[in-house]
Design a protein that fits this description.
Length: 447
C-alpha cells in the first residue's frame, strides 16, 4: 500500500483535519510529511518543499523554532501536566491578559473549536437566549454541531441545532439588523472574524485592504456590530483564530480599534503547540467560576489536557519572540512583496485577469479564474500543482518569520514557471495540464 492508502485505511479522511486531506491538494503534492524546519517541510522520500501551509497557520515563527522548543522541553521536564494548576498556567494566563487588557479573564484549551463553542455556551448562559449569528461568507468557526449544522455537510446533526445558527453578510450591517428584527430577544451572540480578505468597513472606505479610515467610528463595520449587539443585549464575540498573532501581537482588534465582549485565539499563539484561548469580560467569564456563592453553575471548558505545560511554555516564549523580532511587521512586509511579485509575474505572463494575489500583507490570498473569468477549482489546482513542481507547497498563503528573501526568490522563480503553464492552459484547456483531479471544497455534501 502507498502512503495515501495506508493513511485512508487507518484514519477516516486520511488526516486529522479535512484541510490536510488529499482532496485539498494537487495529486503531485507530498502525501505525507516527515518533518519541518524553518519555512520548509520534508516528505517521506526526503524531498524538501517551501511551505505556505504552516501547520494550518498555527506556525508563525517557523517549524522547530529552537527558542520555543527549548521552552516547551523545559516545561515537559517539570512534569508537563500536574494535578493542580501549575505556575506556568498562571503565568500564561497573566501574560495573555496583559496582551488584551480589556479582557478580565481567560480560559485555555487545546483547539480553537473548543473555545468558540465555549463562547457560544457562555453567551447563551449570560443572555438566557438560544440563537447565534455568524457571517455567511466566513468559512469556519468550530467542528461542533451549532456551526457545522449550518453548512452543506450537516449529516448527523439534528435540525434543532441548525435552526439556531443564523447568517448575515460581513460588511452589510442591514443584514444583521434584519436578523435582530426577525428574531427579537433570541440572539445570544454575534460571532465573527474581524477581517478575512477585506477590512471591516461598510461605510466610505474605498481601500478595503487598509484599516478603516472612516473618521466616524460608527461607520466602521465592527463598531456598528458592537453597537447593535449592545442595543439588543447580545454578546459581541470576535474570533481571532486566524487574525490573532498575525494582524498584530494584540490582535486585529488593535488594528481596528475595537474591544469585544469575548474573543477567541488559537493559531499562532504557541508556534504550533496545541493552545487556544477564550478571553473575555470578567462579568461574563466569571459565570464559569466557582466563587460566586449560590450562583447557578455554567460548565465552561474543563479538559484534562488544558493544563499541558509544554504549550504554556511555548506560548510565553513565542510572545517574547514576537516582541524581540517584530514578527507581525515581518509578516506584513513579506506578504506585500509576495502579492506584488506574484501579480507582476502574472501580468508578465499575460494571465493577470485570471490569477490575482490579494488580501492583507500579513495574510495574502490568491484567486484563480478560468478563460471566461470564472473562479475555477481546476485552475487553482493547476497553479498549486505547478508550484509543487517548483518545490513550493502553497494550498493557501500562511507566512512565518522564517520566510525571508531566499524564500521569496524561490517562490517567485517557481511562480514564473507556473504562470507559463497557466497561460498555456488558458489557451488549450486546463484538463490536459492537470496530472490529477481538481481540489474540492471541504464543505460539500457528497464525496
Ligand atoms: C476562524 C477559525 N475559527 C475557529 C477555528 C477552529 O480551530 P481548531 O481547528 O483549532 O479547532 C478555525 C480553524 O481553522 C478558524 O479558522
Amino acid at each position: 500500500m502507498n502512503w495515501s492508502d495506508r493513511l485512508h485505511a487507518a484514519i477516516p479522511g486520511g488526516a486529522h483535519t479535512y484541510s490536510r486531506g488529499d482532496d485539498q491538494y494537487p495529486s503531485n503534492a507530498p502525501p505525507i510529511l516527515s518533518h519541518g524546519r524553518g519555512a520548509y517541510v520534508h516528505d517521506a522520500d526526503g524531498r524538501r518543499f517551501l511551505d505556505y501551509g504552516m501547520g494550518l497557520r498555527a506556525v508563525t515563527l517557523g517549524y522547530a523554532d529552537e527558542r520555543v522548543n527549548a521552552a516547551a522541553i523545559d516545561a515537559i521536564a517539570r512534569g508537563n501536566n500536574l494535578t493542580r494548576p501549575s505556575l506556568l498556567e498562571l503565568e500564561a494566563a497573566e501574560r495573555l491578559l496583559a496582551l488584551f487588557p480589556w479582557a478580565g479573564m481567560v480560559k485555555f484549551a487545546k483547539n480553537g473549536s473548543t473555545v468558540t463553542t465555549a463562547a457560544v455556551k457562555l453567551a447563551r448562559a449570560y443572555t438566557g437566549r438560544t440563537h447565534v449569528a455568524v457571517p455567511a461568507g466566513q468559512p469556519f468557526f468550530t467542528y461542533d454541531d451549532w456551526f457545522i449544522g449550518s453548512t452543506p455537510m450537516d449529516r448527523g446533526i439534528p435540525a434543532e441545532h441548525k435552526a439556531l445558527t443564523l447568517k448575515f453578510e460581513y460588511n452589510d450591517i442591514a443584514s444583521l439588523e434584519r436578523l435582530f428584527a426577525e428574531h427579537p430577544g433570541r440572539i445570544a451572540c454575534v460571532m465573527l472574524e474581524p477581517a478575512t480578505a477585506v477590512a471591516p468597513c461598510g461605510g466610505g472606505c474605498t481601500d478595503l485592504l487598509a484599516p478603516c479610515r472612516c473618521t466616524d467610528r460608527r461607520a466602521n463595520f465592527l463598531h456598528r456590530v458592537k453597537a447593535l449587539c449592545a442595543e439588543h443585549g447580545a454578546v459581541f464575540v470576535l474570533d481571532e483564530m486566524i487574525t490573532g498573532f498575525r494582524w498584530d501581537l494584540h490582535g486585529a482588534m488593535k488594528v481596528y480599534g475595537i474591544e469585544p465582549d469575548l474573543a477567541t485565539f488559537g493559531k499562532g499563539m504557541a508556534n504550533g503547540f496545541a493552545l487556544a484561548a477564550l478571553a473575555g469580560r470578567r462579568e461574563i467569564m466569571e459565570l464559569g467560576g466557582i466563587r460566586d456563592q449560590g450562583a447557578e453553575r455554567v460548565f465552561l471548558i474543563s479538559t484534562t489536557h488544558g493544563s499541558e505545560m509544554s504549550a504554556f511554555g511555548a506560548f510565553i516564549r513565542t510572545v517574547d519572540v514576537y516582541r524581540s523580532e517584530d514578527v507581525t511587521g515581518h509578516l506584513w512586509r513579506y506578504g506585500r512583496r509576495l502579492i506584488e511579485g506574484l501579480n507582476a509575474l502574472a501580468a508578465e505572463a499575460g494571465v493577470a485577469g485570471h490569477f490575482e494575489a490579494h488580501g492583507f500583507g500579513c495574510s495574502p490570498y490568491y484567486t484563480a479564474r478560468d478563460a471566461d473569468g470564472r473562479v475555477s477549482m481546476p485552475f487553482r489546482t493547476l497553479w498549486a500543482q505547478e508550484m509543487v513542481r517548483g518545490g513550493v507547497l502553497m494550498p493557501w498563503v500562511a507566512l512565518s518569520l522564517a520566510h525571508g528573501d531566499a524564500e521569496l526568490d524561490l517562490t517567485l522563480t517557481a511562480a514564473r514557471k507556473a504562470f507559463a503553464v497557466y497561460a498555456a492552459a488558458l489557451q488549450d484547456g486546463v484538463e490536459s495540464h492537470l496530472v490529477g483531479p481538481p481540489v474540492k471544497p471541504v464543505f460539500r455534501k457528497y464525496n
